[in-house]
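Hi all, posting the design record for the shared folder.

TITLE: backbone redesign
STEP: 1 of 1
STRUCTURE INPUT:
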C-alpha cells in the first residue's frame, strides 16, 4: 500500500513595503498602491521590518477571509487594539457581544425601515443644506459635508435625545478619533504604551464622545418611555442589563450606530465634488439627469427611482474611493488561502481600494466610468471584486441607508447649484482609518439659472 505525501503549502512572496514607505513618506497611500501593483492579485507579505502582514487583494481570497472562513479572521490585533476605546465591544468588534449587538441594530437598517424614513430624511437634508450652504461664498467642503450629514442622521435616528450642542461636540470628536491614529496604520508594531503623535487627541475625542453618550443613556434609563429614537430603542432592548455593564453595552451600540451611519457617509460624500470637478463629461450627465428629473423642486423620494445615472455615479465613486479602504484581520488558526499558508496569529490586510483597481477584474481600472454599474453590466464581475461595504457576516448594515442619503444629498444640492472647486493642487487620498482627501479643499456653489 502506498502512502501519498502531501506537500506543505508554500510561503507567500515578500514585497519590500518598508522601502516604499520610505520613498513615499509624505504620501503613504502611494506605498499601498505600489504594493498592490507588485502583488497584482497574488497573496503576498508586506515587509514592514519587524511586522510582515499578508496583503489580500484577489476577490477569491477576499471572499475566503470575509465569508468562507470568516470566523478564523477576527478584528483583533495591532490595528484594532488602539481603536478599542472608541469602538468598544459591540458590533464593530469580534468580542462576545457583537452578534447580539448586530441583532439589536439590524431592524434599524433594513431596506423597509430605511425606506419608511426617506420622506423625513429628504426634509431634514433640505433644511441642513439651507442652513449650511451660502450661495456664492467659498466654504470648506470636508467641514460642510460633515455639518450636513451628521445632524441629518442624528435628527433622523436620535430625535431630540442628542441636542445641537451635543452634535457640535460629536462632529469634531468623531473626525479627530478616526484620523488621529493614522500613524499607527504604518507603525502597528509599536506598543500602545509607547506614545505616538495623535494619541492624546484620540483620548480627548473618546472622552468627549463618552461624556455625551453616557449622559443621554443615564437620562433615558431613568424613566420609562416608548419613544422610537435609537437611544430609547437600544435602552429598551437592553433593559435587563442594568448598571455600568449595561450602560457600556448601550454606549457601544449607539456609538457604533452613529459612527457607521455618519462618519463613513460624510467621508465618502466628500469625494463627490472631487469627481465632478475632475470628470466634466461625467458631471454633465449627472447635471442633465438631475435637471430633468428633479428640476428646481425640492428633492423627494418620488425622484429617486429615476436618478439612475446618479446611482451609477455613486457606485463608481465607492469603487475608486471606498471609505473603509483597509480591513485588517488576525488569523486565529493556521489556514491556506490560494495555496499559500497563513500562520496563526498573523495579520491579513484586505483592501477594497486595491482590489477595486485590479486590471484583471476592471477594464481601465483608474478611469472614472459610471457605466460599469449600468444594469446590463451588473452580475458580470466576481462578487468580491467590488465590496465597498465589506462582506460576509460583518458586512456593513448601513449600505441601503448610505445610498438613500447620497442620492438625496447630491440631488438636493445639484438641483439648485453648480459646484466650483478651489484647489491649488490635485485632491488625492491620504492615509487614515477612512479614505480621506489629502487637503481641506474649498468650493463655491453657484445657483442654477432656470428659464
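Okay, here is what came back for every position:
SEQUENCE:
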Amino acid at each position: 500500500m502506498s502512502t501519498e505525501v502531501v506537500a506543505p503549502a508554500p510561503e507567500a512572496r515578500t514585497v519590500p513595503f518598508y522601502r516604499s514607505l520610505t520613498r513615499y513618506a509624505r504620501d503613504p497611500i502611494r506605498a499601498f498602491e505600489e504594493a498592490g501593483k507588485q502583488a497584482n492579485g497574488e497573496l503576498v507579505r508586506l515587509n514592514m521590518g519587524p511586522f510582515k502582514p499578508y496583503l489580500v487583494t484577489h476577490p477569491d481570497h477576499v471572499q475566503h477571509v470575509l465569508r468562507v472562513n470568516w470566523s478564523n479572521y477576527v478584528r483583533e490585533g495591532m490595528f484594532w487594539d488602539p481603536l478599542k476605546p472608541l469602538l468598544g465591544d459591540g458590533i464593530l468588534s469580534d468580542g462576545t457581544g457583537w452578534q447580539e449587538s448586530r441583532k439589536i441594530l439590524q431592524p434599524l437598517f433594513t431596506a423597509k425601515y430605511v425606506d419608511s424614513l426617506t420622506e423625513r430624511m429628504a426634509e431634514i437634508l433640505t433644511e441642513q443644506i439651507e442652513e449650511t450652504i451660502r450661495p456664492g461664498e467659498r466654504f470648506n467642503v470636508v467641514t460642510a459635508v460633515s455639518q450636513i450629514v451628521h445632524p441629518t442622521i442624528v435628527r433622523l435616528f436620535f430625535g431630540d435625545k442628542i441636542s445641537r450642542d451635543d452634535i457640535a461636540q460629536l462632529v469634531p470628536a468623531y473626525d479627530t478619533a478616526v484620523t488621529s491614529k493614522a500613524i499607527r496604520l504604518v507603525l502597528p508594531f509599536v506598543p500602545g504604551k509607547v506614545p505616538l503623535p495623535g494619541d492624546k487627541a484620540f483620548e480627548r475625542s473618546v472622552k468627549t464622545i463618552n461624556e455625551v453618550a453616557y449622559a443621554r443613556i443615564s437620562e433615558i434609563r431613568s424613566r420609562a418611555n416608548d419613544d422610537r429614537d435609537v437611544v430609547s430603542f437600544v435602552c429598551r432592548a437592553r433593559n435587563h442589563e442594568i448598571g455600568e455593564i449595561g450602560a457600556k453595552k448601550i454606549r457601544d451600540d449607539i456609538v457604533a450606530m452613529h459612527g457607521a451611519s455618519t462618519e463613513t457617509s460624510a467621508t465618502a460624500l466628500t469625494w463627490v465634488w472631487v469627481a465632478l470637478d475632475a470628470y466634466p463629461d461625467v458631471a454633465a450627465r449627472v447635471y442633465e439627469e438631475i435637471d430633468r428629473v428633479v428640476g428646481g423642486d425640492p428633492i423627494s423620494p418620488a425622484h429617486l427611482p429615476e436618478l439612475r445615472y446618479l446611482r451609477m455615479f455613486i457606485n463608481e465613486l465607492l469603487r475608486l474611493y471606498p471609505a473603509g479602504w483597509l480591513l485588517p484581520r488576525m488569523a486565529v488558526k493556521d489556514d491556506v488561502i490560494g495555496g499559500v499558508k497563513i500562520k496563526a496569529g498573523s495579520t491579513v490586510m484586505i483592501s477594497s481600494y486595491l482590489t477595486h483597481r485590479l486590471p484583471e477584474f476592471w477594464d481601465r481600472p483608474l478611469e472614472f466610468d459610471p457605466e460599469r454599474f449600468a444594469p446590463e453590466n451588473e452580475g458580470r464581475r466576481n462578487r468580491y471584486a467590488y465590496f465597498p461595504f465589506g462582506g460576509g457576516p460583518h458586512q456593513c448594515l448601513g449600505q441601503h441607508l448610505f445610498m438613500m442619503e447620497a442620492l438625496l444629498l447630491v440631488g438636493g444640492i445639484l438641483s439648485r447649484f453648480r459646484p466650483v472647486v478651489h484647489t491649488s493642487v490635485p485632491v488625492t487620498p491620504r492615509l487614515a482609518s477612512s479614505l480621506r482627501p489629502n487637503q481641506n479643499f474649498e468650493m463655491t456653489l453657484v445657483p442654477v439659472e432656470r428659464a
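COMMENT: The longest strand covers residues 417-422.
Let me know if anyone wants the other runs.
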